[in-house]
Design goal:
The complex is a heterodimer of chains A (about 500) and B (about 325). Chain A is an all-alpha fold. Chain A contains 25 helices and 2 strands. In chain B, the strands form 2 sheets. Chain B has a 6-stranded mixed sheet, with helices on both faces. A 5-stranded mixed sheet of chain B has the order 7-6-8-5-9. The chains are: A mainly alpha (about 500), B alpha/beta (about 325).
């Protein structure tokens, strides 16, 4: 309960002002495609040079929490996931926005984010020492199995058939091999200087999701410019709260999955949303509605990606190991003030550590308030005529891809992948499994190589990867997940032809 | 039309040469950009941001320096870009990491070598250290080598990747001690390598002194030796490898500094080489670096040139056997 003693520090005029600034700024940065939470925090670091340590961290902590949530805005309204965390939000969120329920989708996403986020921070406050051990328990073999578990999710994720889902997952896995290999430094499939650094996930994400939509909008825009304008339904905030709590299954699955996965160094943030989405889809009686603008999808995905924020800082604050790229940037922010995170951080600098954590707690709530305020206004975006909208989305897509590492090469990659995806979508393939393959490929590969190097030096590969309770548990879950997908496939025989895919598309738009 | 074009071209040329003739005295006239070939938040990026923060002062360059990150493939992406595409006009600086880029150029497959760049000044030197978990039975480098002799090829230890300082240190240790070790490169840099030591996935590791210092303060690791010529001010109690009977020099020390692409006008190089070391000496810079646990080591252009040449020779010899 020590953290309660430092709550006062959050509410001094300067600190609270910084908290507001970080929250509002974070929402705006997060809503800008291409500006991932990591980059937003890195951009703010220079501003903290002249602040007190606690003040600097308040700014960074608030920005971190609200950029993660802000990413939902572009994911829902523009179908551009600002960061990998928001991929799952596009699946149902954007479909809702297209039906004129953008305000509802945004409200649900901000409320779910806040609930998940508060839960995650509370875990950080109360369970840090226990969680630190858990974070360390994942070695190369476990991370490998975890990545394989992610791959098994691919089949059932937002695709009209398991086979097509797996096929687009494989395309993603192949794309992930392009560039210098992570461990040995070997060059693979480098046919153009733009891909020598591999395919960066963020430009790929923007291209795969936004470009097919831009092409569709341009194609339609000429035929019916005005017919597309739809009425945006107003949605009372009270109803949104009621709905979130009514969907308690999606909310609790999202929150728990996000917290657990967020804890694992190096994997967490990227796949928390997708895994939570998939799990709540599998456990929901209304699983057929997922992907057609179902509120459970938005709630699960957004509660998961904010729940991951708190636990993802556990390895940093207790062991001084940054578990995610954003945590690495935050470490820089701490070091610059001469504060070394570690198990004694809470003894040596309690004022800084607790004020930082408290500010994330308050930040979640402020984020929710501001988010709900803008939700109604932002949803009007759906009324913008198609042709104009397409131009805006295209502009943002180019800007977002370029800004990741100031490279035109990334813009070419984004355009090429996006154009390819347009044609794949015509044949019933979807972008989410492809991106998941792109993210999981390097994790599975690098951990397999590291694991087998350790195994060869100490025991044998078989023993290293197939013994131990954690390995066996993960393997069991992998087998169960595959069995479930096969069973579902056999039961419902979901065949998709080109005509079905076009029909589905028409039904949505 | 043709004459008009010719006249315009002539005019442009005169303008350009005119600007060039007197441009060097007033350099820099606009903000400068510095490329860092590692991601935001890493040690190189973090230090680059600190040492350039006073660039805008009147007694320094008088213009701010903006950091641009081009991460990927252990730095190869950024340095490839810097060698082939960066403008050689003095407004595009780059951060170098020695021995990384020289070792990579010897290994091959990249478009740069030490001849592609002109050093300006060095700001830091981060030696590699040998770390083991806090509860490890190893208490000195002799314990480690004895274990490796008894179990050839079974001593697993982590480092930040292949052909970086940590890997060079590992190769030196293998060569000098005459043992076979199992070096496990991490794909997540020094932080990933440190995590595997603390979690007990490997028996030991080579890591950056600055990161190991923090991990030791937190009670997570023991530091057994420093791969440098003398002890470090952050760790006065930890002996060097040489003191422990292993003849290892400072070839693995991670030197960080500023460079420009080959072809940058000599007057601009001279101006930068004169100003940048004094900019590093600023007391605010030194204070922030010390607070972050980052050892500073300021060297002028001539000293860096000599250091690059010496490194290249050692590394060629060391990597020849691979």
């Amino acid at each position: 309960m020590e953290f309660l003693a430092y709550f006062g520090d959050v509410f001094t005029p300067i600190n609270f002002g910084l908290l507001l600034l970080g929250t509002i700024g974070g929402l705006i940065l997060g809503a800008t495609p291409g500006l991932s939470p990591t980059m937003a925090v890195a951009l703010l670091i220079p501003f903290t040079f002249r602040l007190e340590p606690a003040q600097g961290l308040i700014l960074l902590g608030a920005a971190y929490t609200s950029t993660v949530a802000g990413g939902a805005v572009s994911a829902i309204l523009l179908k551009i996931p600002g960061a990998p965390a928001n991929i799952a939000t596009t699946l149902d969120g954007h479909t809702m926005a297209q039906k004129g329920q953008g305000a509802r989708a945004l409200q649900l996403s901000f409320i779910a984010s806040a609930i998940g986020g508060v839960f995650g921070v509370l875990l950080l406050i109360f369970l840090t020492p226990v969680l630190a051990k858990w974070a360390l328990a994942f070695g190369p073999s476990h991370l490998f199995w975890l990545a394989i578990l992610g791959v098994t999710v691919i089949g059932s994720l937002d695709s009209s058939s398991v086979v097509k889902g797996l096929l687009s997952g494989c395309i993603g896995l192949w794309l992930a091999t392009i560039g210098f290999d992570d461990i040995m430094g070997a060059q693979r499939f480098i046919f153009h200087p733009a891909v020598s650094g591999g395919i960066n996930v963020i430009p790929a994400l923007i291209g795969l999701f936004a470009i097919p939509q831009v092409i569709t909008m341009f194609a339609k825009g000429r035929v019916s410019l005005d017919a597309e304008v739809l009425t945006v339904e107003k949605h009372p905030i009270r109803d949104a709260f009621r709905e979130v709590f009514r969907r308690s299954r999606a909310l609790s699955i999202g929150t728990l999955t996000g917290s657990v996965i967020g804890l694992i160094p190096g994997v967490g943030g990227q796949i928390a949303g997708l895994v939570a989405y998939d799990q709540s889809k599998k456990m929901s009686p209304e699983r057929d509605k997922f992907g057609t603008g179902h509120s459970e999808g938005v709630i699960a995905a957004e509660s998961a990606n904010n729940a991951m924020v708190g636990p993802s800082l556990v390895p940093l604050l207790t062991l001084s190991i940054p578990g995610s790229p954003t945590a690495a940037v935050l470490l820089g922010g701490l070091l610059i003030h001469g504060i070394f995170p570690g198990s004694d951080l809470f003894d040596n600098n309690p004022d800084v550590a607790w004020t930082f954590i408290n500010s994330m707690l308050i930040g979640q709530i402020l984020m929710c308030i501001f988010g709900l305020y803008v939700a109604g206004l932002a949803a009007k975006v759906a009324q913008v005529p198609n042709a104009v909208m397409a131009a805006i989305v295209l502009g943002l897509a180019v800007f977002g891809s370029y800004s990741v590492q100031n490279s035109m090469g990334d813009v070419y990659v984004m355009m090429a992948l996006g154009t390819g995806m347009y044609f794949l979508e015509r044949f019933g393939f979807s972008a989410a499994p492809l991106v998941l393959g792109l993210i999981l490929g390097p994790i599975a590969e690098a951990n397999f190589i590291q694991g087998s190097m350790i195994a060869n030096a100490t025991s044998s590969v078989g023993q290293y990867f197939f013994t131990g309770p954690l390995n066996l548990t993960l393997i069991t879950v992998v087998v169960a997940s595959i069995a479930y997908s096969v069973w579902m496939e056999l039961r419902s025989r979901r065949y998709t032809t080109k005509d079905d895919a076009v029909k589905k598309e028409e039904a949505i738009s | 039309m043709k004459t008009l074009l010719a006249a315009a071209a002539l005019g442009l040329t005169t303008l350009a040469t005119g600007a060039f003739a007197d441009g060097h005295e007033s350099f820099p006239e606009r903000p400068i950009m510095m490329m860092v070939s590692y991601g935001a938040g890493g040690a190189t990026d973090f230090q680059a941001r600190i040492v350039t923060m006073t660039a805008g002062n009147e007694d320094a360059l008088g213009m701010p320096i903006a950091i641009i990150n081009k991460p990927g493939a252990g730095g190869r992406v950024g340095w490839n870009w810097f060698a082939t595409q960066a403008d050689a006009d003095g407004y595009t600086l780059g951060a170098y990491n020695i021995p990384h880029f020289i070792a990579q150029s010897i290994e091959g497959g990249v478009e740069y070598s030490a001849d592609s760049f002109e050093p300006i000044a060095n700001w830091g030197a981060d030696p590699a250290v040998f770390v083991v978990g806090a509860d490890s039975e190893f208490n000195s480098m002799a314990d480690v080598v004895d274990y490796a002799k008894a179990n050839p090829g079974k001593l697993t230890f982590s480092g930040a990747g292949l052909f970086v300082g940590h890997h060079i240190a590992a190769l030196q240790l293998e060569k000098v001690a005459g043992v076979k070790l199992a070096y496990i490169p991490s794909n997540k840099g020094g932080a990933g390598a440190m995590k595997s030591v603390i979690a007990g996935e490997v028996l030991g590791g080579v890591n950056n002194l600055s990161d190991a210092f923090r991990a030791q303060e937190a009670g997570n690791v023991k530091i057994l030796g420093v791969f440098d010529l003398e002890r470090n001010e952050f760790l006065p109690d930890v002996p060097t490898l040489k003191e422990q009977g292993f003849d290892i020099d400072n070839a693995s020390v991670n030197f960080r500094g500023v460079m420009v692409p080959k072809g940058t006008p000599q007057p601009i190089i001279d101006k930068l080489a004169a100003t940048v070391p004094t900019m590093f000496e600023n007391s605010r810079v030194a204070g922030k670096m010390k607070a972050g646990g980052s050892p500073m080591h300021i060297m002028t252009r001539d000293e860096v040139l000599a250091m690059w040449a010496a490194r290249e020779e050692t590394l060629k010899e060391l990597l020849a056997g691979l």
